[in-house]
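Thanks for the sequence, V.! I ran Beta-lactamase-related domain-containing protein right away. Repeating your input here for the record:
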Amino acid sequence: MSKGGIGIFRLKGIDDYEFLGWGGSGGSLFLWNVELKIGFAYCMNAFHTALLGDERSLAMLKETVNTVLRLKNIKE
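Predicted structure:
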C-alpha cells in the first residue's frame, strides 16, 4: 500500500483520478495528483479515529478537483 510512507489512492466520488500521499489520525490528509497538477493538504487540531481524511477533508478535496476540472474546461 505504501512505499516510503506514500500511498496510492482512488477515493469515492473522484475515483477517476489516482492520488499519491497519506492521511493521519484525526482526519488530516495530504495528497497530490500529477494529471490534474494539484496538491491538497488539510490538517485540524482534533483527534479521532479517521485514518485517511474524514468527511471534511474529503469534501474539500472533491470540490477542489471539481473546480480544477471546470477551469480546465473553460481554457479548452
